[in-house]
Amino acid sequence: MDRVIRWRRGPGVVADYVRSAPGTYVWLLILFVTTVALHHMTPDFEQDFLRQRSTNIHELSRNPLRVLITSAMWIDGGHWVPYAILYTVFHAQAERWLGTLRWLAVCVAAHVLATLVSELALLMAIRNGHAPHSAVNTLDIGVSYALAGVVAVLVYRIAPPWRYPYLAALLAFYTVPIATGRTFTDFGHFLSVLIGLGCYPLVRGRGKAWNPKETLTALWVNVRA
């Protein structure tokens, strides 16, 4: 009987979790719809379609506000499920903790600032002859800058000393590509992390930091009960 009750409560728990992070799951729903749309496009049309919604230098110079918004509504590659997992693990947790407006502020800051600075760096590279002129039309869409910023701000959600291994892994994950690939997107991701870490003022007063040891202890007690 207890198992039946727990099973019936399961969908309700999921629904409550989704409702607690409305911004995350509305965004994820938009990404699902746009991903389905991409799967109905021919490869050539898809590339041209996405390029017009990309935050590349050409489009930013024509209509920066439009492409900064539309570029965050598409996933390059058409794989939605991994993002559903990442959004649930990181975005939903950040929104539940910070509240929708503060979470959105982190997302916008990381997405917009990292995009503009990385594209400016690319423009300078083109002018100095370190990148081809065709790079002004480079495809640059997706939600990874906002995601990196949110992953970074969650550093403050974790209590010391558990915070420091998380921070070290975060920095290693986003620093190694700069040393090996040195692309403007790698630079943009690293900038997003710095922006997320710089959003510390937004986390003040958001309650006690999460202590993994306390959670594990509580789970152990429940298992033994």
Overview of this protein structure:
The structure is a single chain. With about 220 residues, the chain is mainly alpha-helical. It has helices at about 1-20, 20-40, 45-50, 55-60, 65-70, 80-100, 100-125, 145-155, 165-180, 185-195, 210-225. Residues about 1-10 have low confidence and may be disordered. The radius of gyration is 20 Å and the shape is globular. It has 11 helices and no strands. About 70% of the residues lie in helices and about 0% in strands.
Mean pLDDT: 89
Question: What general form does the structure show?
Answer: globular
Structural class by sheet pairing and helices: mainly alpha
Distance between the termini: 17 Å
Order of helices and strands: HHHHHHHHHHH
Sheet with most strands: none
Provide the gyration radius in Å. 20 Å
The total strand number stands at 0
Number of helices: 11
- Classify the beta-strand content into a percent band: under 5%
Q: Which residue ranges are poorly predicted, with pLDDT under 50 across at least 5 consecutive positions?
A: 1-8
| Fraction in helix | over 70%
Task: Set down the secondary structure blueprint.
Layout: H1 2-19, H2 22-38, H3 43-51, H4 57-62, H5 64-70, H6 81-98, H7 100-127, H8 144-153, H9 163-180, H10 184-197, H11 212-224
Helix pairs in contact: 2-6, 6-7, 6-8, 7-8, 7-10, 8-10, 9-10
Give a quick summary of the entry.
The chain is an all-alpha fold and 225 residues long. It has helices at 2-19, 22-38, 43-51, 57-62, 64-70, 81-98, 100-127, 144-153, 163-180, 184-197, 212-224.
